[in-house]
Amino acid sequence: MNWPLEAFLSFLAAGAFGVIFNTPRQTLISCGLVGMTGWLIYRSYNFMMDDSVQATFAGAFGVAIVAHLLAKKFKMPMIIFSVAGIIPLVPGSKAYNAMRNIVENNYLEAITFASEALMISGAVAMGLVFAEVLMQSFFKHQAKRIQKKIGMTLE
Amino acid sequence: MAQIGETRRELALDCFLLAGKILMENGAETYRVEDTMIRMAVSQKMTNSHCFVTPTGIMFSPSDELSTRFVRINNRQTDLERVALVNSVSRRLVAGEFTLSQAYDELQKIDQTNLKFNIWLQILAAATASGCFLILLGGSWTDLPFAFVFGGTGFIIVETILERTRVKFFAEFIGSLAIGLLALLAVHSGFGKDLDTIIIGSIMPLVPGLLITNAVRDLMAGHFVSGLSKGAEAFLTAFAIGGGIALILSF
């Protein structure tokens, strides 16, 4: 596999999705970077462990973490950064193959692909949830620390 | 509540509902919308307000004894720049940089101006994304021009039909039907190599990625009504795309 090419293409694809979703102009490059991060994590994990469900989980987790950090930095909703980055992880080809096999009456093959697609979409969801919980507890902890530092107490 | 005058309260309610409406129409998550509205209300000293947001309507009650207001949401699209702008207005209102009437003017400006990228730029972006996905999913370089052109064409068809008929699922069905047909023609005429990757690459711009992400985040925030209805919308979209392609493949 060709790393620089894949990095460039995933950057371009995520940026293009940013244009389609009309994200603010100054965030387009960041959207591309988020997409690139997610795709590279997904591909490297898949390359080493050969498990697309776990790889998708790792990719979605990475996307959500980076999106949260960027949302803090730009002071914008997190969804602006996460959406474009999630798209490459959506199991489009598995769903397509499932449907194709249904049309061709290969139901057993179709069930295999469909359940894989379902597992992968579940992995995307779990990646988002885990990152969300982690980041929220992290930010809460940080806010508490800052409040302690400047001598404010929590209500 | 007593310290806020009648007209000011009505202005505040207009302001909150408009903010919520713009957010919901342009693809924000439901729990974020509720959070934003409640924060804005607290900044205007309405501390025991309640709001209930669904993808099709917003209810806002300023307090127990005052009357509840309701606003209907008819069309939903994806325009994240508006979401970001409303978010910054609400931040500035809460921080005290904006007065209520300034914020309301700003929101109306956001609601009325068209902030979308040029349609040709969007089509180019859809075509680029299709081409990129073709290569990323393991397609061959000779198929690249097909995915590029078909992805753009599919996007144009969906946007045109959406403008004419306002039936989203029909537009997506026809769009994917056209993509499938074009890809089939390209492969049968001997120019295209791999039918599957061309189709998968070209339908990528139509995939309901935002809806899926939104549905998941709403569900885990405990907004089951919104999460399930957005999930249903995503499922219907996926079904429309799949139906269009399946019809072509069955020939």
TrEMBL record, chain A:
UniProt-listed Pfam families: ThrE_2 (PF12821)
InterPro entries: ThrE_2, ThrE_Dicarb/AminoAcid_Exp
The UniProt record lists the keyword 4Fe-4S: no
Membrane topology qualifier: Multi-pass membrane protein
UniProt keyword annotation of Membrane present: yes
Location relative to the cell: Cell membrane
Ranges that cross the membrane: 53-71, 78-97, 117-139
Keyword annotations from UniProtKB, A to Z: Cell inner membrane, Cell membrane, Membrane, Transmembrane, Transmembrane helix
PANTHER family named among the record's database cross-references: SUCCINATE TRANSPORTER SUBUNIT YJJB-RELATED, UPF0442 PROTEIN YJJB-RELATED
Family: Belongs to the ThrE exporter (TC 2.A.79) family.
Name listed for the protein in its UniProt record: Threonine/serine exporter family protein
Automatic annotation (TrEMBL), chain B:
Transmembrane segments: 119-138, 144-162, 169-191, 197-216, 228-249
InterPro entries: ThrE-like_N, ThrE_Dicarb/AminoAcid_Exp
Location(s) in or outside the cell: Cell membrane
Signal peptide start and end residues: none
Domain of life where this protein originates: Bacteria
Major place of residence: membrane
Domain Threonine/serine exporter-like N-terminal: 16-251
Pfam family, one: ThrE
Key words of the record: Cell membrane, Membrane, Transmembrane, Transmembrane helix
Mode of membrane association: Multi-pass membrane protein
Family: Belongs to the ThrE exporter (TC 2.A.79) family.
Protein name, entry field: Threonine/serine exporter family protein
UniProt source species: Planococcus shenhongbingii
